[in-house]
Amino acid sequence: MDRDKLLVLWFNQLGIEDVPLVGGKNASLGEMYQNLVKKGVRIPNGFALTAESYRHFLNHNQLPDKIKKILQGLNTSNMKNLADRGHKVRELIKSAEFPKDLEQEIINSYKKLSKQYGDTYTDVAVRSSATAEDLPDASFAGQQETYLNVKGESMIIDACKKCFASLFTNRAISYRQDKGFDHFSIALSIGVQKMVRSDLATSGVMFSIDTETGFKDAVLVTAVYGLGENIVQGAVNPDEFYVFKPMLKKGYKPIISRKVGTKQMRMIYDTQGNKAVKNITVPEEERKQFCVTDAEVLQLAKWAVIIEDHYSHKAGKFKPMDMEWAKDGKTGKLFIVQARPETVQSRKDITKLTTYVLKQQGKTLAIGRSVGSKIGAGTANIIRSVKDIGKFRKGDVLVTEMTDPDWEPIMKIASAIVTNRGGRTCHAAIISRELGIPCVVGTTDATEKIKQGQKITIDCSSGDEGKVYEGILKYEEKTHDMAKLQKPSTHVMINVGDPSQAFELSFLPTDGVGLAREEFIINTSIIAHPLALLNFDKLKDKEAKQKIAELTYGYKNKGQFFVDKLAEGIGMIASAFYPKPVIVRLSDFKTNEYANLLGGREFEPKEDNPMIGWRGASRYYDPKYKNAFALECKAFLKVKKDFGLDNIVIMIPVCRTIEEGKKVLAVMKKNKLTKKDFKIYAMCEIPSNVILAEEFLNIFDGFSIGSNDLTQMTLGVDRDSELVSHVYDERNEAVKTMIKHVITVANKKGKYIGICGQAPSDYPEFAEFLVESGIQSISLNPDTLLKTTIVIANKEKQMKK
Predict the structure, then answer these.
(1) Which residues contact 87 (CB under 8 A, 6 or more apart)?
(2) Which member of 427, 460, 491, 684 is catalytic?
(3) How far apart (Å, rounded) are the C-alpha atoms in residues 209 and 323?
(4) Nearest to 709 by CA among 515, 525, 512, 510
(5) For position 71, what pLDDT does the model report?
(6) What are 380's strand-pairing partners?
């Protein structure tokens, strides 16, 4: 019999070319079931009701003409008009009869599936799969319904009828009408798949590409307790993990970022009530823990790579994937339950780079996770229920608890979206990416902190954290054509502080990272003083002790918390720019700054002038601090040995004497950081570094000039004092003489010489002076990198004439 006329096809009979027969979801499940189960990817079996089934159902009940009549004169911008007509169509379908031959096919197939899993009536998920889901618009895929924990013949038939009706939800009707699709050119297939008992365990969504930036070498894994609908709907804020693909393929364990989500609800089977599933509250202790193990995250990431590689090979081009996974609480096994192509970042033009910079500061009203990197502004319109979406006006900022596909008619006319709940794979995040509007999710309290009608600005331009500010703030938007940028022979590198910005910054035309600062990671991810972590049981400050206990929940060894978080921060930056060099400067807090860390006051002396006090190298070998420094060393080892990242260069700040340099190298060696495994540079930021450059470069692999401190020390000016700020100038001849001398010495010795200080970012003429002096590398702040690169290229061209 012609396959096009079959009413049911099993997964092992389907491939990706069968989208016209069974829709995108089912075709993809068949493709994976046929090809990837043998490669170790677990996929629950099932069958698909074909598009022919849907047409047979409609024609048997003579529904097409009746539906056309109901939809005549439809006005999708009138919410009541849309809702009334949608309701009539759905009721018409739900009250129709199943053709006997189709009903029997479904029941026979269900019995066969139940037998395979050793049940009389096994539990299944019944999912809609529209035949136009392969169109490059992911919002289409989320428009029809899914029914979970469906058991027994009558429940299956009922769920199938509801799925057919869901092709005419208000949002789906509106979407097709607005896109110009004929309502009858699209058919609905239904997937009936064995349920994975994730109600007793965990589930989630993963992408084989970074959803925010399009960075293609990372897998993003998100996870919640219970069934996966909560994560898709954005009802809970999930745990999040990033895994670096190139090193995963080499057998390392590169989980370069781990973030605990609040996971406040768990969706489970409802065995008592009349619903198939229900939500219950997750106990506080369980919320604070990761709901999956590192081993499970790595297993899922490996499968993501296998799935992506398969689809990329089949398509003949890079094909990043969006996947849903579930863990069976009875067997402890992981499964992939869905996979579809990622449709936003994979279509991005990487030759064009648009940057957004906020030009004003305002009062912060709410903070959450940023989606994308844009800035937007408008009038806040707080909509608490989908029944009130008629009150929304075009150009408003949608502020709500969470969204689902019913909200799409107003999401597409919003200037930005802010939600209380949801992670970066929730519905609001997915749709805002498609629409290209800024979105901040998981704020917890935006609907309380923002007032109805208030003017607000939404800022997603500063990495992981998205902020909502009071008022309409000025911002700058610039688009750069990367294809036209001339690459100079001087290496142009970038200064990076925030690891969550690293993937985005990796698209800039750089030769690597000239300065990655540990201070940002310690201040934002670790927050506690390393000695307070190591001496946690002896801490006198009860408030600090309580905060550290909360921060390090799940860590018996508090020092390991420091190691893990620092390693992840460094790992994110090193992965983003791999295999280009990433120069990481060891911690360079001053005593007053260390004292401000949690528990820090118990371990830090008071100094009259911390700027020239106990900082940098002088701490690392000091008996009072070297145990804390050992944690930094362990973090670097973890990045190298566990993550497999071998592109890191370690840099020592404020190394005042040759003797001090030797002492630090000895302590590093004792902590297994050797020059065999890492290149080790020193900052050149003190006149002694310049005067004894020859000797310093005998023990170090290179120098990076810190023009800020070098100017301060050369001119004897406290750079923090406004009284003498008029004297502070990197362009002073004394400073330039110092810099020119050290460049000459380093080049003569064949050692690395670069600069990571502020001066070339601030002054184009200073960048030109550095090129003239023969500098090998200039590291710049992200916001000045493109314009200064042009200055450097033009200077090189001029020098060749």
Answers:
(1) none
(2) 427
(3) 11
(4) 515
(5) 87
(6) 397
Concerning whether 655 is annotated as a catalytic residue, the answer is: no
For the question of residue 633 being annotated catalytic, the response is no
Please pick, among 291, 426, 655, 756, the residue that the annotation labels catalytic.
756
- Predicted confidence at residue 646, as pLDDT, reads 96
pLDDT digits (tens, 9 = 90+) for 373-390: 899 999 999 999 988 888
Which class for 248: exposed (0-12), middle (13-18), buried (19 or more C-beta within 10 A)? buried
DSSP string, 527-589: -B-HHHHHTGGG---HHHHHHHHHHTTT-SSHHHHHHHHHHHHHHHHHHHHTTS-EEEEPP--
Reading the block at residue 94, the tokens are 């739900």
Distance CA 663, CA 65 (A): 87
CA distance 269 to 286: 19
Reading the block at residue 219, the tokens are 């897998």
Q: Cα dist. 479→91, 356, 508, 786 in Å?
A: 49, 9, 12, 11
Q: Say what the pLDDT of residue 274 is.
A: 62
Q: What is the pLDDT of residue 139?
A: 43
Closest CA to 227 of 205, 208, 255: 205
**Contact criterion met (CB below 8 Å) for 110 and 119:** no
SS3 at position 114:
helix
Q: Tokens in use for 64?
A: 């097409």
Is residue 668 classed as helix, strand or coil in its secondary structure?
A: helix
Annotate 552-588 with b (16+ C-beta within 10 A) or e (fewer).
Answer: beebeebbebbbbbbbbbbbbbbbbbbebbbbbbbbb
d(CA 697, CA 772): 22
The ranges of the chain with pLDDT < 70 are 1, 132-144, 273-274, 346, 720
Q: What is the DSSP letter of 10?
A: E
The two structure tokens encoding residue 154: 């009558």
Type and span of the H or E element at 766: helix 764-773
Collapsed DSSP state (helix, strand, coil) of residue 706? coil
For residue 228, which of 32, 500, 427 has the smallest C-alpha distance? 427
Beta bridge partners of 193: 46, 125
Number of helices and strands (H, E) in the chain?
30, 30
Q: What is the pLDDT of residues 194-204, one digit of tens each?
A: 999 999 999 99
Q: Which secondary structure element, helix H or strand E, spans residue 366, and what is its range?
A: strand 364-371
Beta strands at 124-130 and 188-194: parallel, antiparallel or unpaired:
antiparallel
Q: Which residues contact 637 (CB under 8 A, 6 or more apart)?
A: 671, 672, 673
Q: HSE, CB side, 13 Å, CA atoms: give it for residue 429.
A: 31
What size, in residues, is the chain?
801
Residue 611 CB neighbour total at 10 angstroms: 17
Kindly list the structural domains of the chain, giving each domain's residue range(s) and its CATH number in brackets, ordered by start: 3-195 (3.30.1490.20), 199-347 (3.30.470.20), 352-480 (3.50.30.10), 485-800 (3.20.20.60)
Cβ-proximal residues to 13 (8 Å cutoff; 6+ apart), any chain: 30
In sequence order, the 6+-apart residues with CB closer than 8 A to the CB of 677 are: 640
Q: Is residue 384 exposed (0-12), middle (13-18) or buried (19+ Cβ within 10 Å)?
A: exposed
DSSP class of 723 = G
Q: What amino acid occupies position 444?
A: T
In angstroms, the CA 417 to CA 383 distance is: 11
Instruction: Please tell me the predicted confidence (pLDDT) of residue 273.
Output: 60
Contact 175, 196 (CB under 8 A): no
Nearest Cα residue to 376 out of 434, 322, 417, 428: 417
Q: If we measure between CA atoms, which residue out of 42, 13, 27 comes closest to residue 109?
A: 13
Cα gap 22→8, rounded to integer Å = 9
Nearest to 515 by CA among 579, 576, 569, 585: 585
The DSSP symbol for 614 reads S
Provide the edge-to-edge strand list for the sheet that holds 146-150.
8-10, 46-49, 188-194, 124-130, 146-150
Q: What is the pLDDT of residue 185?
A: 80
